Known about the structure:
The structure is a homodimer of 330-residue chains. With 330 residues, chain A is an alpha/beta fold.
Amino acid sequence: MVGRERNGPTMADVAKKAGVALGTVSRVINGEQVGEAYREKVMEAIKALGYRYNNSGRALRTNRTNTIALIIPNTINPYFGLLAHHINIALEKRNYKMMLCFTEYDRDRETEFLQMAQENMVDGIIALTYNPDLVIPESIPFVTIDRFFSVKVPCVSSDNYGGGVMAARKLRELGCTNLAFMRTASILINEPSKRMDGFAAACREMHIPYEVIALDEKQPYSEFESFLSKHFKDGKLAFDGLFIGTDSLAWEIIKTLKQMGVRVPEDVQVIGFDGIRMFGDQEYIVSTIVQPVPALARASVNMILSDDPTDRPSLMCLPVTYVSAGTTRD
Amino acid sequence: MVGRERNGPTMADVAKKAGVALGTVSRVINGEQVGEAYREKVMEAIKALGYRYNNSGRALRTNRTNTIALIIPNTINPYFGLLAHHINIALEKRNYKMMLCFTEYDRDRETEFLQMAQENMVDGIIALTYNPDLVIPESIPFVTIDRFFSVKVPCVSSDNYGGGVMAARKLRELGCTNLAFMRTASILINEPSKRMDGFAAACREMHIPYEVIALDEKQPYSEFESFLSKHFKDGKLAFDGLFIGTDSLAWEIIKTLKQMGVRVPEDVQVIGFDGIRMFGDQEYIVSTIVQPVPALARASVNMILSDDPTDRPSLMCLPVTYVSAGTTRD
DNA sequence: TTGTATGCGTTATCAG
DNA sequence: CTGATAACGCATACAA
Lengths: 330, 330
């Protein structure tokens, strides 16, 4: 069912019909200076023939495809879905198309996609990846999200550190005196790990005691349960405030707390990170630090499309916001 | 920052370096029959030069891009995110790339994308759209999801009718004696509207009374509230079972019911449609009829890539399943 | 089996 | 301002 024989009229046909030169047709189509009489003749011929522009020819000639590749784990996780959406919108505003590659956290796939993107002459690559060994192609504009590679590879990210500080201060402000931070993460140096750093720094600054549990990818969720029950005595949890690495994990932790008989937010207040909403646009799921996804998307797109090297900082952090949604007492 | 001058080595360079003809290089790369000695020389030259394949040339020559366009409202709604993901995976298995277009339900954008997809010589279009006036291009393989255009345009869909029947029977089986169906929808003839048809038919068959409220896009949510309070007397809802067009709406309705003091599932059991999970992979949000998204994705992809016209039925309905998740008493 | 040569549709250079 | 013409990188028909 794949159509391989769509031979519509070409610019040459239009030129012949209009009685002008091929180059003139090209100029009309690209909006360059052309005498009005010529322009009209060409437009008429285009309509008469039902001419349709063919990008393959242009791509071959110019080495530009007006396409950016987005490499992302999936669009099932709502955060990634949101990000993909806003990046697509931002690209489209600048007249670029998006080629989407889902890695499913598979390292081989990531390198494969990089290869493929280059074969397809994309004009740039935006990647959110967790592969530590990924070799970034030098020959093609590259922007990463949330992940540091080297100072030569621009990275766009939320202000994760600032978000961590914000969470600690907010919990303090809401009366908490004994905090904990919980997360799962890879061992990679990436931006999200700064959530913890900011949180810890703020706790120290405010002289609030805090504990940290950070699981790596291989440890099971039950480690969190052990952690919580270790700090659970006489029907009471040792913490009155939790800052959790992602909304998704926060949601799971809250389920566990409920099973333990710990009430949220009465006994313990919980703040997550990301800003996930129910069905993408309904209410927030937990009180959380919201990532500025549309701004992240715009920033990555501006960066990858800019010709100006000063638009290529090694790291750009965008401000987060706090939102209350039932798991805190505000 | 957009790279327009990446002039790497071409097949001609490889040929010269290997001391063979250009055509031979092409044949090696495309895996055609080539003498072993030649193949080795070519492979060596490719490595030595760091040659990278350029798809623009091939696209121009063959009119094939190995790219399929997916037109979809967004990836914020979790159902669409899931669908996009599985379609991408299915395409990738067949060595196809995906160009993604988000319509945001905007009709002008839909027609624009159709135009753009053709300019970019995509090999086919898979579309989930709500535009009644959309003109399907004849010259390019086209498959729709959930939406009937004409018998000439193949449509892939869940068995919405069967799902409606299934919901009614399940509610009956769970002891309900007074049902209602609620949804919002466009006036379009589309597959999801058959959810209601199946539900109503099953109710009649079982001689169960049922009410229906179907809002169009312009009516506010408050119409649902009025409907519910109209059927609410002496602290009791007239219905003991609700079938709701989507999980998303079901979620909202349940919030409203809680505000009214109606308990779910004790006072009224609720079944949604779609099969949305928390964060895409955690628990189901409501008891629901689950759409077979991976199968839908595979079917659309098979259809659009098949050369065999018998793989192009006008409608293909895939079986749904029921899952219980706390809003029913099973 | 391998080499040669042509053309896909476009842009861009250069003359007029 | 417009016309003619040469690439761009590749696949393929045809010749050897």
